[in-house]
Amino acid sequence: MTSTPESNPRQDQNERSEEPARSLNFIEQIIEDDAKSGRFGNRVHTRFPPEPNGYLHVGHAKAIILSYGIAKQYGGLFNLRFDDTNPSKEDVEYVESIKEDVKWLGADWQDRLFFASDYFEQMYEYAVQLIKKGKAYVCDLTAEQIRETRGTATVPGTPSPYRDRSVEENLDLFKRMRDGEFPDGSKTLRAKIDMASPNFNLRDPVMYRILHTPHHRQGTKWSIYPMYDWAHGLEDSIEGITHSICTLEFEHHRPLYDWFLNELGVYHPQQIEFARLNLTYTVMSKRKLLELVKNNYVDGWDDPRMPTICGLRRRGFTPESLRIFCKTIGVAKFNSTIEATVLENAVREDLNKKALRRMAVLDPIKLVIDNYPEGQTEKLVAVNNPENEADGVREVSFSKTLYIEREDFMEDAPKKYYRLSPGREVRLRYAYYVTCKSCVKDADGNVVEVHCEYDPETRGGQSADGRRVQGTIHWVDTQTAIDAEVRLYDRLFNVPNPDDPDNLGDYKDYLNPESLKVVKGAKLEAALADASLDDRFQFERIGYFTLDKTATKDAPVFNRTVSLRDSWSKVAKK
RNA sequence: UGGGGUAUAGCGUAAAGGCAGCGCAGCUGGCUCUGAACCAGUUAGUCGGGGUUCGAAUCCCUGUACCCCAGCCA
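Above: the input entities. Below: the C-alpha cells describing the complete assembly.
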C-alpha cells in the first residue's frame, strides 16, 4: 500500500478524535479481535488456576491482577479454580492461604470457586471417549522405560509395545486402574499421538497415573489421577473460559490441549501466554523460597522480606500498590527483569496518598530548650496528611525536653547541612524555631544532649517577621512518647540477580546481612498508641510504616514498608 | 546441534509501512513547615548484515543472542 503522509488514514483518525489512540497490550488486542469476530459471542471469561501446593508470590499477583483485570475491563467473569490433580503434593492449608491472598488482592471470583477434582468424573468419561476413538491406550511401561523410549531432540521416540491394544482391552484395563486393581506406577493411560513429533509433549503423553494417595477433597475415591496436560485444558473448557492466560513455559503444551479438545469435539478456549515476572534483589522460585523458610533464613512465609503476597502484606504493601506495580510493568512475551525500585516506587505512590503522617524518632538524643519554662506543656496542631485534607489534624504535646534524631545534629556541619548545629536555627515541625547553643557529650565523646533556645514568637512553626529557616526536623515530646520496636527492612539480597549462574557459589551466599535492622528504643508520638494492623503511616522524614502482627498494646512493633526517597544521601556523598 | 518463543534508552513498555513515544531510574532547576510529595527541563534507544519501498522498529532474506521443552510435577 502506498499513501502520502497527508492521506494516512490512521493519522486522519487521530486528528478527528479528541483522545489519542488507546494503546493495547498484546492480550487486550487478542480479546478485542475476538470480540470483533464474535468468536466467543462477546463473552470474556478468565481464571486463575493455582495448584494448592505453596504460597503465592508477587509473580502470581501479576497473573491474578492481569486475569482479573482483563475480565473486569471487558465486563466479563473471573473464576478461582484450584488445579488439585496431584494429591501427593497438595494440601488444604494452601487452599485457604491462596483464597485469602487472591481476595486481598481484590480479585473477586463471586460464587465461582472451583476445584479441578470436582471434574474428575467427567474427565474420566472423556478419557473413555478417547479410548473408544482409538486415541488413548493403557501402557504397562515403567516411568523409566517411558523416559528411555521418548527419544531425544534429534531422534524420534519408539512406540510402546502396548500402543496397539484393542479398544476393549484398553477399556477393561482403564476401568480396573480406576478400581484400584494395580499398584502405583504399574500402568498409565497414554494419548496415542505421534512418537516422532518434534514437540515432546505430543510423544504419547501420559494422561493418567495410578496413585493410591488420598486426595484432600476426594478422600480415597480415586486410585488414578489426571496429569496436568490432560486436565488443564478440560477444566478451562468445562468452565467456559474464553481466554486462558498463563505463563510462557506452557506455550508448547498448547498444541496438546488443542489436540485433546479437538479430538473430544468440546468447547475450546484460547490460551494466551505471557512472560513471568522477574524482580531484582530477590528470588522467586518455590523451591528457593521454601529453602529460605525451612532453614530459617527468614521468619516464615510471611516474613516482610519475602516476595510472597503474605510477606508483602505484612511489610505494609497495599493491594492498590500491587495494582499500580502491575500497571507500570505492563505485560508482554519478552522475558524481562523488573528493577526492585519499581515495586518500591509503586508502594510509595499509593502510601503517599493514603498514609497518616506521624512523628517518630528512631535513634533518639535529647533536645533541651533552655529558655522554655520548666514544667510547661502545650498542645500543637499537626496535619495528618497534606495529600488529603479530609484526614484532618491532631494535637501533639510539646515540652522543654524532646527527643530528636541523632543524625539531625552535627557539631561540625558542612554548609549544605540544613539541620541542627551550634549557632544554626531550624524549625521543629509544627512547633517552634530553635537555635542550637551547645551539646553535651558522654565520656566516649558521643553527643547525648543538644541545647537550644526557642523563639516564642514562632509558635506553630511560622515567624511573624517572615524570616526563613532552611531545615525542619521532627521530634517527639519526652513527656508523652511511647517506646516501640521498629524493624527496618531492606532488600533480601545484595546483588541484583542472586540466581545468576555466573555468580560464585550459591544464591544464599548473596543474602543481605542488613536486610533487617531491629531498632529497640524508638520513641513514637502518643497518637501511634492507637495503631491497628490495617493502618498505614508515614513517619515523617523517614519512611512508611505499619504495625506488625506480633505487636501488643504494651510492646508495639512497627515494620518499615519502604523508606522515603532520600536526596540528602546523594548530596552527603559528594 | 530438533522444536517452540523473544529481541526498541540503564530497566520496563508503546508505535498495526509515515515525526521512535511513555513510565521508572539518572541528571538540572523550581517550590516546600517532610532534604518527602509536587512542578518544569534534560541525557539516552530500534540485536547485526542484506533486500523491498518515496519511506521500515514494522514486510522479505540471512545471521546472532537469550528463554523454554525429553516428570507417571504444575
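Note for the figure: The CA atoms of residues 255 and 361 of chain A lie 60 Å apart.
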